[in-house]
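Quarterly update, task 2.4: protoporphyrin IX containing FE-bound model.
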Amino acid sequence: MALMSGDGVMFLVRWIHFLAGITWIGLLYYFNLVQTPFVGETQPAERGALVSKLVPRALWWFRWGAMFTFLSGWLIILDRMGRGGFFAGSYGWAILLGGLLGSIMWANVWFVIWPKQKIVIQNALDTGAGKPANPAAAPAGARAGLASRTNTLFSIPMLFFMGAASHLTLRVPRSGATFWIVALIIMAAVEINALAGKPGTATTKMLATVKGTLWAGFILAAVFYLWFEVMR
Ligand code: HEM
């Protein structure tokens, strides 16, 4: 029984990782590529059932998908680290870069998008029941939207390096410290824009459109790939 071995159990963890990952990222793309542009073309009065009935259901699968992807992903990393030689080939470097991007995305889901969306959903329920609107709902929605667009951006290099780990041999960087410091600075700059970027600046404007977000994602994937090449 192949599944009863240690490798079999880790394979089940990998299976959970793939299932949870597609659930999460599938909904992320639905929100960003379909729902947000749709909402932009509707009137506030038309959005009641969407925000109060559809979005909460979608967000449940979204945030638990993120949680299971994150937990299963780190379990696989810890298992691989425990076997030794993690940083010997490019696997460890690529999976850690992809995993760190995924972990920032997970934090955005649980600590920005979900708390802000709760305010937006409550406001839709309140106004639907004839109560006054909450002035904090619009800025909360905008911040959640920017964090969600940032996650869409990050998902592009994230999946490149997650797939590259086992299927593309990269050169191991010559200086680990320099490699990670620069990689973390780049990630932090994009994340600071998600957390504190003001509407109307060039970076938030780029993420306001699907096209700009996808471009930013492919550019970031290229930047990280080139960083691997520069550091070899
Ligand atoms: C949240 C942080 C994440 C961490 C820490 C993480 C970690 C990992 C690890 C360690 C592997 C390697 C499995 C192996 O060695 O066979 C892996 C593979 C994979 N991950 Fe993730 N992951 C994360 C997020 C995601 C997300 C959001 C997706 C989206 C679909 C995803 C999709 C995949 C896929 C498709 C593979 C298979 C790659 C292959 O077999 O070549 N991961 N991930």
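Highlight for this quarter: The chain is about 80% helix and 0% strand.
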